[in-house]
Amino acid sequence: MIWVTWRQFRTQAVVGAVALGAVAIFLLLLGLRMRADYDANLAGCMAQGCAPGVVAGFEDTYATTVMVVDLGLIAVPGLLGAFWGAPLIGGELAAGTHRLAWQQSVTRTRWLAVKLLLVGLAATAVTGLLALLTAWAVSSYDTVRADRFAALAFGARGTVPMAYAAFAFVLGATSGLLLRRPVAALGATLAVFTACQFAVPTALRPHYIAPRTADIRLDAATLSHADGIVLNGSALTIGGVALPDAWVVSAGPAAAAAGREPDGDALAACLTPGQHARTMECLAEQNLHVTAHYQPSSRYWPFQLIETGLYAAMTAALAALCFARIRRTL
């Protein structure tokens, strides 16, 4: 059974190995270039604090490349699920070869177990190797950015990429078994996996552990990172409120000292169109505060393990559905 599985899977394995080698070369060159740039310009001043222009220049140089790499790594599990998982059973059912395969000495349960285990491990291993290479290549950027909870970075580092791969592969196999058409299963796999990749980070991840609460003063340093200001009467909402070494999940509207409502007229006078620096300086003088809910960086690995466990549970549930369904499939 192992030999038969290899014979059926070898073309996909060769294509995957070639693609992995090409990506590994790219990541190796990217990592060497990024590390050389970091050592030359930032390594000596990171502990004491580098000039803002130097740090911003480094981030601007590599931000787009790192974003594309992270997006690619997050997409890999879905592609493996679609092109490796969907045809695994769906291809047999569409071609009718399951009638012959399941009449041999190997039971259909064992047939499914070997296929899911061998090809699933291959998909997980490929994704794991890519995650390790990516983490090494962009480690300098991650050090400078210091935002491990960022949606793309979190999904492309640690243990979660392998959990994504296992889930996407078994999702593809289950789709093929239920839909009996590889093309339809491919589309369903990509759609469901993409939906999970949007739903989990936004709806579930912030609540794995109850967030902590902090009172943040809107001084000049905090306001310099603001990415949006909305004033509705005396209700001032500041976007992009940040805490050092933490993930701010949400932040309430600004309040004056002792929790009083801010002076709407004074705030309106601060909002000078076309003069961002003057607006920030004026707001900093109002002694405003916001209540923020945040996750400290010390929870990064607990969050990684929780999300890995979540996807592992979904993978196990799909595998159980496969084994239950295949016994009744003709």
Automatic annotation (TrEMBL):
Membrane spanning stretches: 12-32, 71-95, 116-137, 149-171, 183-204, 308-326
Phosphoprotein keyword on record: no
Leader sequence residues: none
The keyword Metal-binding is assigned to this record: no
Keywords in alphabetical order: Membrane, Transmembrane, Transmembrane helix
Protein name: Transmembrane transport protein
